[in-house]
Amino acid sequence: MRTGYGNPAQYITELHVEEECLHLPYTREIIARCNLPVTVLPISRKTPQIPGQYPDNLTVGKHHLVLKKNRGIFFKPCPGTREYRCCDYQVLNIGMGCPMDCVYCILQAYLNNPWISFFVNIDDMFTELDQALSAPDQHFYRIGTGEFTDSLALDSITGMSRYLVEYMSRQSRAVLELKTKSNAIGNLEHLDHQGRTIVAWSLNSPTVMAAEEIRTATLDERLRAASQCADWGYRLAFHFDPIIYHEGWQEGYSKTIRTLFNRVPADRIAWISLGALRYLPSLKNIATERFPQSRFFYEEFVDGLDGKARYFRKQRVSMYRHIADELTTHIGQKTCVYFCMENDTVWKEVFGFCPQQRGGLGAMLDNTVNE
Ligand code: SF4
Prior knowledge:
This protein is of the alpha/beta class and 371 residues long. It is 33% helix and 20% strand. The protein has an eight-stranded mixed sheet, sandwiched between helices. Strands 2-1-3-8-6 form a five-stranded mixed sheet, with no helix packed on it. Strands 15-17-16 form a three-stranded antiparallel sheet.
């Protein structure tokens, strides 16, 4: 069994700060906390110098964290597609990039900088959130920070979770999901979270976690952290995504599920998602160059309606059925098991219904946290 990385923030060795952000109290707080060498990036050159070409320099680039201003918007709907059932999630963009290095990580193809960016103009972020969450439309928001980064991977440096959890504790029409593959939960202790934050872990078969998820926490570390969060009163979520076909996948996923329910109280789990591997064609080239020992990209795939490659439906259904059957023997009554980005045919074949029959996937998940 491999030794887990636990807190991937330890991979960061250099901090870079945009000159115009130096005066911000949050920047000063991070600099004081992190004990790293700091380079100031002048307004005339806002990027660190990382030798080599992207993506070859990603492994080195991930040592570098850049504190910068988000000049775009922080809060927007998750980019789902019309062709597949999406869960009506809202993305809060706290940064881009991740110190961990999963072979299948879509960020390798989405981003084109080797370093990690973290946004420090959090006053602007909370102003945007205030505007959205006080709108008179009565919309209920499920918000996640784990779309372009891992929610907790850098938390021991940034301390962002404390600000977010405290902010969310005052909201009545929203929950926050912090999704991670780390065990960096230290900042979540002693917070008056009011049940408005859900702490989530991505899980996979032991083979995939060991071979394809570099610098992540082991299953044991992830579940110990989850159990601790449950003790602190947080609700939990788990994501089997991406589900990857490999030799022994049935026993692998079953084993992870059995271990999960041995270690974590089922009644604390708000939702569990399932999503089979899907990827942009450009990701395959990048990932197979960077990780030549990985074989899973060489299985058979079909082009999906969203332009991403995915397993044939028959194979997806077979994997989903196996995992759903295993989950069914363990889950609590209130836990919502759902697909991330699947079509109605697959929903019906595996679960016997499609989300529209239950008010839509967004409503199914909203009901889970509002009961
Ligand atoms: S933990 Fe998530 S964001 Fe980080 S490398 Fe893995 S897939 Fe990408």
